[in-house]
TrEMBL record:
<protein>
    <submittedName>
        <fullName>Flavin reductase family protein</fullName>
    </submittedName>
</protein>
<keyword id="KW-0560">Oxidoreductase</keyword>
<dbReference type="InterPro" id="IPR050268">
    <property type="entry name" value="NADH-dep_flavin_reductase"/>
</dbReference>
<dbReference type="Pfam" id="PF01613">
    <property type="entry name" value="Flavin_Reduct"/>
</dbReference>
<dbReference type="InterPro" id="IPR002563">
    <property type="entry name" value="Flavin_Rdtase-like_dom"/>
</dbReference>
<dbReference type="GO" id="GO:0042602">
    <property type="term" value="F:riboflavin reductase (NADPH) activity"/>
</dbReference>
<comment type="similarity">
    <text>Belongs to the non-flavoprotein flavin reductase family.</text>
</comment>
<dbReference type="GO" id="GO:0010181">
    <property type="term" value="F:FMN binding"/>
</dbReference>
<dbReference type="InterPro" id="IPR012349">
    <property type="entry name" value="Split_barrel_FMN-bd"/>
</dbReference>
<feature type="domain" description="Flavin reductase like">
    <location>
        <begin position="23"/>
        <end position="166"/>
    </location>
</feature>
């Protein structure tokens, strides 16, 4: 019996461009993380977002340790997380841009506390800080969901291979087709 295999060439993890390319192979949802601070909206876009737990209800995001926005958002009180809709790619890029221009032309929604939300989002989560875990050049932020609104009819924005994508629904039969 002979073994049939082909050679796979792997790059070392010290190769930053190869590492970024590998990370970009995994699609993720994109969210806005926002709150009102001293009467002004403060927020940022985050693409390293994931659901974590149903009990307690937790989500996570990863924030660069060099972020100047996260320290302003992380205090006590509510933080709004808005899951961008497929039509909000330009808005997402705006919230990832210069801090003083992030809310230009945006009238955020609110639910009566510090949390603010992006209008038209696929889901809005009012959260509180649950935990922060140092992880290399990032911090893993765990947020507890305190209240939410979701519209499953709104297609989410997906970030994959350094660009925004749309989801495609597929029916897969028993034979894998």
């Amino acid at each position: 019996m002979t073994e049939n295999s082909t050679h796979l060439s792997l790059a070392p993890t010290t190769d930053g461009s190869s590492l970024r390319q590998a990370y970009s192979a995994f699609p993720s949802g994109v969210v806005a993380v926002c709150r009102r601070l001293d009467g002004e909206p403060v927020g940022m876009a985050a693409s390293a977002f994931s659901t974590v737990s149903l009990d307690p209800p937790l989500v996570s995001l990863c924030v660069q340790n060099t972020s100047t926005t996260w320290p302003r958002l992380r205090g006590t009180g509510s933080i709004g997380v808005s899951v961008f809709s497929s039509e909000q790619a330009v808005l997402c890029r705006q919230l990832a841009g210069p801090a003083d221009k992030r809310f230009d032309g945006i009238t955020p929604l609110h639910a009566g506390d510090e949390a603010i939300f992006i209008p038209g989002a696929a889901a809005s989560l009012s959260c509180s800080l649950y935990n922060e875990i140092p992880a290399g050049d990032h911090t893993i932020v765990l947020l507890r969901i305190d209240a939410l609104h979701a519209d499953p009819g709104v297609e989410p924005l997906v970030f994959h291979a350094s660009t925004f994508r749309l989801l495609e629904a597929r029916n897969v039969g028993a034979d894998g087709d």
